[in-house]
Amino acid sequence: MYNRRQLNNTPERSQTLAQEQRNALSMKSAFNYQSEIDYLNIKALQVGRMTILCPKCHAKKWKDETHGLCYADGKVVLHQFEDLPDLIKSLIDTSHPLTKHFFDNSRRYNTLFQMTSFGANEIAEGNFMASFKIQGQVHHLIGSLLPEIGNNAKFLQIYFMSKSDQISIRTNMIPNLKRGLIESLQTVLRENYHLIQSYRSNLESRSFDELQNFKLIIHADRVPQDEHRGQYNASTIDEVSVLLVNEDKGPRDIVLHGWSGHLNRVSELNRSYDALQYPLMYTRGKDGYHINILKITKMQQKLSPACNFILIGLWLEKQV
User: Fold this and answer.
1) Is residue 232 one of the residues assigned to a domain?
2) Are residues 274 and 146 in the same domain?
3) Helices assigned H by DSSP within 27-127
4) Which of 66, 73, 65 is nearest to 295 (CA)?
5) Who contacts 234 (Cβ-Cβ below 8 Å, separation ≥6)?
6) Would you say residue 111 lies in a domain?
7) Looking at the record's lineage, which domain of life comes first (predicted)?
8) pLDDT tens digits for 253-312?
9) Tally of CB atoms within 10 A around 152
10) Pair 194, 112 in one domain
11) How far, in Å, CA of 281 to CA of 176, rounded?
């Protein structure tokens, strides 16, 4: 084992760094981390800090990102974000006494309220793995609105239980979280998250027999309010929450069955994809990224496929 301090700024040090770089790149270092390699000094692995601000949207960027990468160089304008609910705002701006606790456990708190689950093909190697490895694409899954008889409620299903049962389940899911804060966050989502309000109203209006074959669809391509209203029957569409009842689904639509033992994959191109997985970021259940975001041009043309995918990360960053 060599002494790194002794090798600094010497020909031997340069040769060592070059060899480490070749080793790291050839061995796919993300999957084969080696503690003896000085990754911080391998230039090919450094992306630097996000020190550049976009002059149009003020998003943070890396120095090598092009102007066109950010909001298609100003050709895309997102809707103004609504004010956050008071509780979420106070937790973020540090005026709440539990701010530090919330920041330290924000992922855990979101887990209590997320409506979709994480899916991936995990790679298992031996009896112990220091890192989590997957193969293929990460995706989200969603179950039915109500659990099958005899099964416990999970994810989205928890929202349709009594308030006290919801708090009890969520408090027992992850230890060392604050029961009072869980209850307050639950109240915020119940009062502000419009998709949950729509789910509940649809369930409460159905009989037990109707729920057997009932399905609710979160439409990927919502028709704006007052546009082509005549082609829809008022009893089958909720234009505010983008819900279609017992309609045929499209390839990017999300289908929620009344009762089902199956999990359905959620299309990452559905506008509710992020809101279902990150309810504490999308506390009002508003649209996230979708493929019909428009450019500002004379013809109001749609974004190219490449720009569409680039905008996913930028949209999420603005939400935070």
Assistant:
1) no
2) yes
3) 71-74, 86-92, 99-104, 106-113
4) 73
5) none
6) yes
7) Eukaryota
8) 888 888 887 888 888 888 888 899 999 999 988 887 777 777 666 444 444 444 444 444
9) 8
10) yes
11) 22
Q: Give how far the C-alpha of residue 59 lies from the chain's centroid of Cα atoms, to the nearest Å.
A: 18
Among left, alpha and beta (phi > 0; psi -120 to 50; other), residue 246 is: left
First to last CA, the chain: 44
Report d(CA 90, CA 185) in Å as an integer: 12
Q: Are 220 and 252 in contact (CB under 8 A)?
A: yes
- Our CA dihedral for 98, 103, 109, 111, rounded to 10 degrees, sits at 180
242 located within any domain: yes
Would you mind telling me the total number of residues written for the chain in this entry?
Answer: 320
Collapsing DSSP states into helix, strand and coil, what is residue 136? strand
* Same domain as 30, residue 114: no
Helix (H) or strand (E) holding 311, with range, is: helix 305-319
Report yes or no on 153 lying in a domain. yes
- Residue 51 predicted with pLDDT over 90: no
Cβ atoms 189, 167 nearer than 8 A: no
pLDDT digits (tens, 9 = 90+) for 173-215: 999 999 999 999 999 999 998 888 888 887 888 887 777 778 7
Q: Are strands 134-142 and 60-61 parallel, antiparallel or unpaired?
A: unpaired
Give residue 177's domain range. 77-120+133-222+238-288
- Model-level pTM? 0.68
Decide: helix, strand or coil at residue 73. helix
